[in-house]
Amino acid sequence: GESVGLHLPTLSVQEGDNSIINCAYSNSASDYFIWYKQESGKGPQFIIDIRSNMDKRQGQRVTVLLNKTVKHLSLQIAATQPGDSAVYFCAENSGGSNYKLTFGKGTLLTVNP
Amino acid sequence: DADVTQTPRNRITKTGKRIMLECSQTKGHDRMYWYRQDPGLGLRLIYYSFDVKDINKGEISDGYSVSRQAQAKFSLSLESAIPNQTALYFCATARAGSGGTDTQYFGPGTRLTVL
């Protein structure tokens, strides 16, 4: 069946370090992936996305890597800041043109000053 | 995202009551979604709508109904609330694009407690 999961439920890093959050997916037909950030008391906020025809995409301080061979997605945050502390979700478009997202359960990132 | 608003932000109700959660958006998006979020379970899709005349069930639609009153408004109703519907509810919107590669933008959420 379809599933999107995370390798680590929690991640604690020191301010200034790089963070890597991982995600595994099982639906090889998924063609679009998104990372969301959710701060306490707020709705998920779009961070970065990647299509299945790409392996890597960079944003401001964030990079998403997609490895279709092993169905693995990762989010890299450079020079992690206290404001990066949040729950991070990966999501996959497993519905094709119907665009239905399947979300992972989330990873809590804590940045220590 | 301030372009997607939800009302109320918090609601406490009793078992058996009818509850309506409302979502409005100024993004001009055609597609709207309702999710619930529970600890340890992530976000699960309740209903979605691709335009005013199109309503579709998500993975957990039982006990819920929706109404798409206009392009900008999508309401979620609990006809007879039960305690296991206590959760955070999120509305999301997306534009209709090609290839299914459309980001969903979320509202701030409604915290619903059913006693």
SSE blueprint and pairings:
The complex is a heterodimer of chains A (113) and B (115).
Chain A: E1 4-5, E2 10-14, E3 19-25, E4 32-38, E5 45-51, E6 56-58, E7 62-67, E8 72-77, E9 86-93, E10 101-103, E11 107-112
Parallel strand pairs in A: 2-11
Antiparallel strand pairs in A: 1-3, 3-8, 4-5, 4-9, 6-7, 7-8, 9-10, 9-11
Chain B: E1 4-7, E2 10-13, E3 19-25, E4 31-38, E5 42-51, E6 54-57, E7 65-70, E8 73-78, E9 87-94, E10 105-106, E11 110-114
Parallel strand pairs in B: 2-11
Antiparallel strand pairs in B: 1-3, 3-8, 4-5, 4-9, 5-6, 7-8, 9-10, 9-11
Can you describe this structure?
The complex is a heterodimer of chains A (113) and B (115). Chain A has 113 residues and is mostly beta strands. Chain A has strands spanning 4-5, 10-14, 19-25, 32-38, 45-51, 56-58, 62-67, 72-77, 86-93, 101-103, 107-112. In chain A, the strands form two sheets. In chain A, strands 2, 4, 5, 9, 10 and 11 form a six-stranded mixed beta sheet that branches. A five-stranded antiparallel beta sheet of chain A has the order 1-3-8-7-6, with no helix packed on it. The radius of gyration of chain A is 13 Å and the shape is globular. The mean pLDDT of chain A is 88. Chain B is mainly beta. Helices cover 0% and strands 56% of the residues of chain B. In chain B, strands 2, 4, 5, 6, 9, 10 and 11 form a seven-stranded mixed beta sheet that branches. In chain B, strands 1-3-8-7 form a four-stranded antiparallel beta sheet, with no helix packed on it. In chain B, a hairpin with a 3-residue loop joins strand 4 and strand 5. The mean pLDDT of chain B is 91.
